[in-house]
Amino acid sequence: MYKRQGQHPVQLVEHTSPACWAELAADEAYVAEVADAAARLQAALDGPSWFGERSGSPLDLVAYFSPEFGITDALPQYSGGLGILAGDHLKAASDLGVPLVGIGLFYTEGYFHQTLSADGSQSERNDHLDPTELALSPTGVDVVVDLAGVEAVVRVWRADVGRVPLYLLDTNVPENPPEVAAVTNRLYGGDEQHRLRQEIVLGIGGVRALRALGIRPSTYHMNEGHAGFLGLERLREWIDRGLGFDEAISAVRAGGVFTTHTPVPAGIDRFPRELFGRYFTTFAADCGVDFEDLFQLGRRDDEPDGKFNMAVLGLRIAARGIHCGQDRLPIRTEAAVRRSIGSLAGHLQLVTAGRSSRADQDDAAAIIQQDGGRLVVDAACGINRGHALNTEARIERVQRADFGRRGIDLHQQPGRKRRFRLP
Question: Could you give the C-alpha distances from 319 to 92, 172, 374, 381, 410, in angstroms and in order?
């Protein structure tokens, strides 16, 4: 029955007959086994952890933004490797006790199910998902984002992945008109405008959701460019607090980490200038910055079509760029990308999470150093003890280097304007 119900524990309970429950309750061995499992779970949640037993760590709370999370079949909010890795990060962070919170979208139709007929033709179907049946908890928090002059109400749900909370954003609420309610309908569905709307909800709505929940991360991780707009919302916050455009970009970078898994055109969202302007001209005006300055954050000089590139945005607003690769990682190509993203790139520390030849590493490092950047090669991709230790040290160095001289408090709460005395 468990497999027939899609490995969904809530539905398993609902479809178990009273007679079966009575039989199980009378089975002392079964009751003892369930009690033992519950005790192990509670110990895993409340017991000591590797990170919790450390002292003096510079690593504060990390917000992990991703368009998909592969947690379990019972919560079908993923399509492939990107989501599985994101889910594994949350699970590993829970096991280690690393302070991390996940931010994603709740897709009411998830990702499609694919079947083949007897003649080999392909068919797809999407199931309608009810968050109240998926062990999601209501947070009581709604936030609002602007979608080209239309206010979208975004509801925030919570799933607990061990010790780690995962917040999922949902536009399918009665307050929204049908076209807005459909923004979070499917993972990787729709046209350019649909994808742009989803990414605005994820990035801008995600930051606003954290604020409404009273959660103040010091580090923001973008799992691919889909979450890049979180940087623009944080940019708006810093400008509202009294920083100029360039200083605000530095403030955003200090707590920014960007990971790319597919550094090829087909894996990167790019939006035409006209479409981007429709959604961000008012945003730029609200920030008190020129629209062209905002648009240039996602532009590459070697892209003649002039589109806004979400991967370029992610690299420009992060202190660290990470590529999860495998053997013979094409870091020469990655270094060329690093060099091409323009004058705002000198800050970037590029980390290749994979193995490559020493010659490739030397070539890539030489290209990167021309712009004042730095190449770091990690042997593995993911959260493990060594990776967490390295992450702590790098975050500490970035924050000290960028803000120790400026007297800027990264933990100051956004909202109230304040003028910083900058050299």
Answer: 23, 35, 11, 18, 14
Its pTM surpasses 0.90: no
CA 9 to chain centre: 27
Cα 62 to Cα 18, 199, 214, 405, distances in angstroms: 44, 20, 14, 24
- Separation in Å, CA 330 to CA 20, 281, 303, 314, 358: 57, 37, 20, 19, 12
Task: Write down the H helix ranges in 3-153.
Answer: 9-14, 18-25, 28-46, 81-96
Q: DSSP states of 358-380 as a string?
A: HHHHHHHHHHHHTTT-EEEEES-
The one-letter amino acid code at 65 reads F
Determine the Cα–Cα distance for residues 258 and 350; give it in Å rounded to an integer.
Answer: 10
pLDDT in tens, 30-64: 999 999 999 998 988 888 988 888 888 888 899 99
Contacts of 215 (CB under 8 A, 6+ apart): 61, 63, 101
Kindly state the percentage of the chain with pLDDT values over 70.
73
DSSP H helix total and E strand total for the chain: 15, 14
Cβ-Cβ contacts under 8 Å for 304 (sequence gap 6 or more): none
The pLDDT value recorded for residue 348 is 58
In whole numbers, what is the pLDDT of the chain averaged over residues? Answer: 78
Distance CA 280, CA 323 (A): 28
